[in-house]
Each structure stands twice: as C-alpha cells, then as structure tokens.
Write a structure and sequence with these properties.
3-stranded antiparallel sheet; 8 strands; 38% helix; 27% strand
Amino acid sequence: MLDVAVIEEPAAAEASLDPMRARLLAALAEPGSAAMLASRLGLPRQKVNYHVKELERHGLVELVEERRKGNVTERVYRATAQSYVISPAALAAVSPDPARSPDQLSARWLLALGARLVQEVGTLLTGAARARQRVASFGIDAQVRFASAADRAAFVEELSQAVAGLVGRYHDESAPQGRTHRVVVGLHQIPTTPAGTDTGTSTSTSTSTSTDPATPPSAQEI
C-alpha cells in the first residue's frame, strides 16, 4: 500500500468523491470483504459489493485475498493507498495555469502554482511507483508571525533576493547531464481555525523543489 496515491483520471476522481465510496476507501485502509464492510458500516452487502467493484475498476482498491467458505468465495480487498490526492490533471480543461496571469502578490496565482505542484509531483510519483524508485525532492514548511505589514513586505523582499541569488549561483543551462528542477516558494496567511480561534497574522512559508516531469527519469533518480 502506498502512503499517498495521486488520482489523475477523471473517472477515478469522480469515483473517489462519491460519499459512500469515500467511506469504503477509508474503511479499506484495513483489508476487508463486502460482507465485513456491510456489517461495519451498516450498509446492504450487495450495494457495498457494487461500489467496491467500481473502486477496484478505477485502481483505488485491490484484491488481496480470496477465502473459500463452503460454496462461497469471499474476496478481501484493501485500498491501494492510505490517502489520495486528486491531481488538477483530472480537470485538465479547467485546471489553473500559472502562466496565464503571473502575479507574485496574487493569492489566485499562488493557488495555480500549488495546483501545478500537485500535478507535476503526482506525475513523478506515478512514474516512480512503476519504476520502483524514489522521487528526488525537497520541502520546507515553516510559520512566521509578523509584527506589521511592513515587516512582512521586508521579509518578502529579502526572501526573493535570497532565492534569486541561489538560483543564479547554481543554475547551469549548459550542463549536458543536468536535470531541470522547479523551485516554488509561497507565503500565505494561515486561515482562521473552524472553532473561531484566530491565528492572527501568523503566516506560513513553504519551499519545494521537484524534478521536471518532462525530463525522462534515469535508472538512478526519478
């Protein structure tokens, strides 16, 4: 079972978003049969069996065991991953495009960058799983609480200069064996918690690098 699976097919995304199938996916973090799931969730066995078959058809669950009980064969399934992420590729026609309106101060542009990050890293994870390789990536997640808007602006300026300096120092366009990576740095205010406790002006910054999915993976690194 994978830690995280990326759903890229529209039909699979639709299947995972169905409320009953989402419940079944969560329940199948541990192996179970249709009869076991029906008893655990209080649902008709035939309905559970139908939905499990649909999840299997889309690669979201897999058969792990068949048990013979008298004249009946019990099929035991398990989710293919502990959690799932739907890639923007599943909505390719309407997925956000960061190149459409680049604006470093736009929350919508930041969201588009995040969507592209999910799509590209998802593509890498899918290829890595098939090749039984790991994805070469790196991420930082941090929080900073600014005393004022002026401090936040100064932080953004200093961060921009630091990233530009690092990129300029290490980027080598002419390297024959080089591999292109993407660096994404984002800063956004943390939303108010559901309980209504405001986190104030606390802001999170995240940095990640990932291999360009357009570059074919080598045997050593994906």
